[in-house]
TrEMBL record:
The chain crosses the membrane at residues 40-60, 67-86, 98-122, 134-154, 166-186. GO terms for cellular component: membrane. It is found in: Membrane. It is a multi-pass membrane protein. Pfam families: Sugar_tr. It comes from Cuerna arida. GO terms for molecular function: transmembrane transporter activity. Residues 1-190 form the Major facilitator superfamily (MFS) profile domain. Keywords: Membrane, Transmembrane, Transmembrane helix. This is Major facilitator superfamily (MFS) profile domain-containing protein. PANTHER family: MAJOR FACILITATOR SUPERFAMILY (MFS) PROFILE DOMAIN-CONTAINING PROTEIN, PTHR48021.
């Protein structure tokens, strides 16, 4: 579980969801849209407030895996489109417009459901009770250290990659990698007993293979029951 969370928090930082929040005004200035960057930052705050309420409802009714996977895919698509329009504006192929801001707000809203919320929740659900307190504290310390490091790296990333649109496309790629990683390795923890979660890590850490094996075992049990009858 610890290694799984370490990778998830690395993906969280490089998906850009926290960078766009901490560098809101300068990020929108680099995008170069027709919308005032300070007004855009207010939009980010409103979107996050609304999605906090929505996320609390979704997490009570749906599993962690589907919310995480679908929100990451949505993030990848929306920030890629935002990067495309940013590139078109910066290269003066089109006039300045509000489309990059719109898709960045969609990206931030979707991130509030997945990358910005779920890693913190599952850090309290994956560890055995005996070591949960210590393990969670260590993971939280690592997470905040990685947040600080990546925030310091952002200006360098912007300069090295070649501008705002390239940074947004990097966020898109990382978000897509995150969706694939979650699909492959993260077990479902919603409404699961701790014993079921621990059994997953003991027997198999690749979720699709684990699910396939469980299906095969159930099929074999059903076949044996039919033979006995």
């Amino acid at each position: 579980p610890a290694l799984l969370l370490v990778v998830i928090f690395i993906l969280q930082q490089f998906s850009g969801i926290l960078i766009t929040v901490y560098y809101t005004v300068s990020f929108f200035q680099s995008v170069g849209t027709s919308v005032d960057p300070y007004l855009s930052s207010i939009g980010v705050g409103v979107a996050r407030l609304v999605m906090t309420v929505v996320t609390s409802v979704l997490l009570r009714n749906f599993g962690r895996r589907p919310l995480f996977i679908y929100s990451s895919i949505g993030m990848a698509i929306s920030i890629f489109i935002a990067g495309y329009f940013t590139k078109e504006i910066q290269e003066e192929h089109v006039e300045k417009n509000s489309l990059p801001v719109l898709f960045i707000l969609i990206y931030i809203s979707l991130g509030s459901v997945g990358f910005n919320t779920i890693p913190w929740i599952i850090s309290a659900e994956l560890f055995p009770i005996e070591i949960r307190g210590m393990a969670q504290n260590l993971i939280m310390g690592y997470a905040h250290l990685s947040i600080s490091s990546v925030l310091k790296l952002y200006p360098f990333m912007d300069e090295t990659l070649g501008g705002a649109f390239a940074v947004q496309w990097m966020f898109s790629i990382v978000s897509l990698i995150g969706a694939l990683f979650i699909f492959t390795f993260l077990p479902e923890t919603h409404e699961k007993k701790l014993g079921e979660i621990q059994e997953y890590f003991k027997n198999n850490s690749v979720y699709p293979l684990r699910h396939k094996r469980q299906t095969r075992e159930l099929t074999e049990e059903a076949a044996l029951e039919m033979i006995k009858q």
